[in-house]
Structures are given as structure tokens and as C-alpha cells.
Amino acid sequence: MAHDDAGANVPGTAIDYIAIEESPAFVEHKRRHRSFVFPLAVAFLLWYFAYVLLADYAHEFMSTKVFGNINVGLLLGLSQFVTTFAITTWYVSFANRKLDPAAEKFRAELEEVERS
To answer: Is residue 33 part of a domain?
Structure first.
């Protein structure tokens, strides 16, 4: 944001997006997002690749019957869907509580500067 010598916003000036991106509040916002998303993404990918590797190299284990015609491989495969929906639900809840309020605040501040 451009300011005059007294520190007031100068109307009609361009928004300094670099300064906003480097502000402590925005840096914290990015840290909060990354600290949730990256570990969860890594955990899910490990779980997914473990399933693929088991399916490819542990045929006997994956074909172990649990009950009736239901085997371990089928249960693990279906749990991939359950895990995906659970992660999505968890992220949406997290974003609604932690990320969206901060993003709305950033947007409102930028819109206010743009109007001035």
C-alpha cells in the first residue's frame, strides 16, 4: 500500500501485494495452511502407495478372506475412498474455522484500499 509522508493511504495508488504477502499476518496464514496440508498430503500418499505396493507384491495377504468373498484387498481399497472423504471433510472444517476468516479479512482490507 502506498502511503504519504504522514503514513496515510494515497488514493488511486496501486496495492503493494509484495508488502502484503510479506506481512506477519499473511506469513502466518500461509504457515497455518501449509502445516495442515503438507503433512496430511504426505500421509495420504504414503497410505495410497502402501496400498498399491501391497496389491502388487503381497497377493497372498491381500487375498486373505475376512468374511465370505470379502478379502483384505477389497477392504483396504474401499478404505481409500473413506480416507479421501474423511480428509476432505477435515480440510473443509479446518478451512472454515481457521483459513477462511483470515482470507476474508485480507480481502476486505484489499478492497478497502482499492476503493480509497
So the answer is: yes
The verdict on residue 3 lying in a domain is no
Give every residue of the chain whose pLDDT is below 50, as ranges: 1-8
DSSP for residue 65 = E
Which amino acid is residue 33, in one-letter code?
H
Q: Which helix (H) or strand (E) holds 51?
A: helix 24-57
CA end-to-end distance (rounded Å), the chain = 11
Q: What are phi and psi of 47, to 5 degrees?
A: -60, -45
- Provide the domain count of the chain: 1
In this structure, what are the phi and psi dihedrals at residue 41, rounded to the nearest 5 degrees? -65, -45
pLDDT, one tens digit per residue, over 44-69 is 999 999 999 999 999 999 999 999 99
35's enclosing H/E stretch is helix 24-57
Asked whether residue 74 is domain-assigned, the answer is yes
Inside any domain, residue 88: yes
Local structure of residue 43 (DSSP, 8 states): H
